[in-house]
Design brief:
4 helices; five-stranded mixed beta sheet; about 150 residues; alpha+beta; Muramoyl-pentapeptide Carboxypeptidase, domain 2
Length: about 150
């Protein structure tokens, strides 16, 4: 794998953090992360991409996670957040989700999740066993207290 896998992301950003041999991610998901980074104009960080089964279990990942290498050996998911701590407010997390959502359509069937720490995005429609599109959120939406 070359030093760079996208315009803004290095190969080391997408490999399994445990240092195992699982290092390959579908190029389309990197292109989607690049497009979101370009749109927002601020540095983003890949929290997690491809994971070996052991590391996936260690971090509490789902057994059928698209972070796991599929039958073609590729991971199809990334977790993105902002690089700078000062950018990690809830409003910016919603902006990140919107940037990903608005660019996801050109990539076909995707999964997109919004969390307080950032966003999960996957190319579930491109996998060897495609899955239907999905959107979800586990986000602490601000609530207005009425008098």
């Amino acid at each position: 794998m070359s030093a760079w896998v996208g315009r803004y992301f290095k190969a080391s950003d997408v490999g399994c953090p445990c240092g195992c041999d699982f290092q390959e991610v579908h190029q389309g998901v990197v292109e989607l992360a690049d497009a979101a980074r370009e749109s927002l104009g601020v540095p983003l960080d890949i929290n997690s991409s491809v994971r070996c089964p052991e590391y996936n279990k260690e971090v509490g990942g789902r057994p059928a996670s698209l972070h796991l290498p599929q039958s073609d050996g590729l991971g199809y998911a990334l977790d993105l957040t902002y690089y700078r701590d000062s950018d990690k407010g809830l409003l910016n997390m919603a902006r990140l989700y919107i940037a990903l959502e608005s660019r996801a359509r050109r990539f076909g069937v995707v999964g997109l999740g919004l969390y307080s720490w950032g966003c999960h995005v996957d190319l579930r429609g491109h996998t060897p066993n495609p899955r239907p599109a999905a959107r979800w959120e586990e986000f602490p939406w601000p609530r207005i207290k009425r008098r």
